[in-house]
Amino acid sequence: MTEALLVIDIQNDFCPGGALAVAAGDQIVPGINALMKEFEAVILTQDWHPAGHSSFASSYAGADPMSVIDMYYGPQVLWPDHCVQGSHGAAFHKDLDTTRANMIIRKGYNPAIDSYSAFFENDRTTPTGLEGYLRTRGIQKLTLAGLATDFCVNYSSVDAARLGFDVTVREDLCRAIDFQGSLEDARETMLAAGVTLG
Ligand code: VGL
Ligand code: ZN
Predict the structure, then answer these.
(1) What is the 3-state secondary structure (H, E, C) of 43-101?
(2) Which amino acid residue places its CA nearest to atom 4 of ligand 1?
(3) Prior bond of 57 cis (ω within 30°)
């Protein structure tokens, strides 16, 4: 049975020096590269927003980064501008071994809605197509690593578990934003969804 490694958002903007830097985000890169060798299938995700995206605080007059607004699909954190399509910040960290990737899935490209998850946009219903890719390859078991534990890794792992995949999150190969208790909330949400924290 084919097992896949899903590597979430190892991009410059989520690493130290980036626009939405996750503390020590770059330190997991060597471990992720090594882990890739144990999987037949490697899939990378890439946060990929158009300029002026609706998840950017700069798109709203007077809004502060890290404030929360109500969108038609629920609460949305307003982020600093990050991972703008084609920018250096959106590029993968230079040390990530992208040659092993079978598939690179981009998300967050719809201007009106954010997409933390590799499977669904933040309305939790609009698919990215990743489920179909995995199913047509006969992949049932997923391991996740990457950035950030409490947002894109959390949402991706919970959606995968909801879809019936067997999901493990390698917490040692993830790093968190940890904003207002979001890491502890995410751990509880992942465990409740049946995700294995390994
Ligand atoms: C992410 C916030 C906004 C992530 C992406 O990769 O966890 N977080 N966009
Ligand atoms: Zn984003």
Answers:
(1) EEEEECECCCCCCEHHHCCCCCCCCEEEECCEEEECECCCCECCCCCCCECCCCCHHHC
(2) 152
(3) no
pTM tops 0.90, yes or no: yes
**Residue given tokens 């006969």 in the structure block:** 138
pLDDT of residue 1: 76
Residues with Cβ within 8 Å of 165's Cβ and at least 6 positions away in sequence, in order, are 134, 139, 140, 141, 142
Question: Pocket residues for ligand 1 (CB within 6 Å)?
Answer: 9, 14, 47, 79, 116, 147-148, 151-152
- HSE (side-chain half, CA atoms, 13 Å) at 159: 25
Rounded to 5 degrees, φ, ψ at 133 are -60, -50
Q: How far is CA 189 from the centre of its chain?
A: 15
| Averaged pLDDT for residues 132-153 | 98
